[in-house]
Specification:
This protein has 159 residues and is of the alpha+beta class. Helices cover 19% and strands 41% of the residues. The strands form two sheets. The chain has an eight-stranded antiparallel β-sheet with strand order 1-2-3-4-5-6-7-10. The chain has a two-stranded antiparallel ribbon with strand order 8-9. A hairpin with a 2-residue loop joins strand 8 and strand 9. Helix 2 crosses helix 4. The chain is globular. The termini are far apart. The relative contact order is 0.21. The N terminus is likely disordered.
Length: 159
């Protein structure tokens, strides 16, 4: 039995329409509702404590040709890049490999009206800080994410 051919680099590259910055702006109650809808409502308070979330979360999700990074705005207004890794697309599935926690999260994706929708598919992770790893995906990526007209380090122009 022979191995199937591996996908070409072009098949795995992040499509150009994804290669930009997307701005996530959520309140705690929105995150709580999204976690409840996904069946993870009982984890909300523990998730908030683990993440040290204020009443609002402002994050920038940026895709490159084969990378992603997520920066968030600290309480003092400074931006911190704290989540990054490789990204690839196979068919309609986007997979982000987190280099810190060494896990892969996969999503179906679509862009409509300059908004990115990520629909959770799979994770190779189990727990992050004692919380199911899927909680993080459901908390931050359950709602359509608007495109930002900026890129690091000029996020302030998008807010």
């Amino acid at each position: 039995m022979s191995e199937p051919p591996s996908p070409s680099a072009a098949e795995e590259a992040v499509p150009s329409e994804l290669q930009r910055t997307w701005l996530i702006r959520l309140g705690r109650e929105q995150i709580r509702a999204d976690l409840a809808t996904a069946g993870f409502g009982r984890w909300a308070d523990r998730f908030f404590a683990s993440e040290g979330l204020a009443t609002r979360v402002v994050m920038a999700l940026t895709y490159g040709e084969s990378t992603f990074e997520i920066a968030w705005r600290e309480a003092d207004g400074e931006w911190t890049v704290g989540w990054w890794g490789t990204a690839r697309v196979e068919g309609a599935v986007l997979t982000m490999h987190d280099t810190h926690f060494l896990l892969d999260d996969s999503y179906r994706w679509r862009i409509r009206d300059d908004r990115l929708t990520l629909t959770f598919r799979h994770t190779t992770g189990t727990l992050i800080r004692g919380i199911p790893s899927q909680v993080y995906s459901r908390a931050y990526f359950s709602r359509p994410i608007p495109a930002g007209g900026c890129a690091p380090p000029n996020f302030e122009t998008c807010l």
